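Notes from hallway chat w/ T.B., transcribed later so I don't forget. T.B. wanted the structure written out for a chain they're using in a teaching module, and asked if we could keep both sequence and structure tokens in one place. Agreed to drop them here.
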Amino acid sequence: MNIKDSIFTRDKAKKTPSIKWLSLPYTIWMIGFIIIPLIVIVYYGLNSKYTNSITLENILLIKDPVNLKAMLLALRLSLISTFFCLILAYPVAVILSKSRIKRNSYIVMVLILPMWMNALLRTIAWQNILERNGLINTILNFLNLPELNIINTPSAIILGMIYNFLPFMILPIYNVLSKIDIDVINAAKDLGANNIQTFTKIILPLSLPGVISGIIMVFVPSLTTFVISSLLGGSKVILIGNVIEQQFRIGDWHGGSGLSLVLMVFILLSMAVVSRYNKESGGSGLW
């Protein structure tokens, strides 16, 4: 490269805007809608509403029997819904990764299509389906079969969670499975591995980053949800998300923020544990 080309390259580099500026809109959005709200929650959660001093009384509201029961129930339902999402999503992701390209794209679009609709509308649809005079019981009555009283029960909430969050489990697993080199699988079979050994020794370990990402993407919204439990559980099933919502509705920002901090701790702990296994598996996952 001669001197003239070097000067031209240097001048062009000066005129080219730094790529860091491209992240400025996201940085502003993150500060305004993530960092500042978190600071507000921490401020209200650690301050007394009576003396305006630092206190843990808002966080200790979790020791109330009603709040503790709601927290444990939310954890239980979240774990159950995450488990069933994983059981349902993994075979679908395997089938998608092995299907033809055109058919593959069509099926993926069908899976993503419900996500374009508002989650509230989807949950209301399930409320109409599961209610006593809904679609399911109408069909059962027509067939002279006993009715299902599933509405306003934990089972209805689990069903709503699975329906709303299943695509978030399928897509990460499918994304990882589709990138597994077929030559690796063929090499394992050439070395004498059967289908079960190929799955347990090759496919499953390589797909763990997608599985872990899917678990996080399902468990976190399941634990914090309050819309699904309000519509499908009614007033009979109260989760910690509903308790926090009620605290803010009545104007108790301190109590709601304190319980939110407790919930945040559970979320961060679960993400830390899962992220540890993700690093041990050698995958990048979400992190």
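Follow-up for T.B.: The chain is about 75% helix and 0% strand. Might be a good example for the class.
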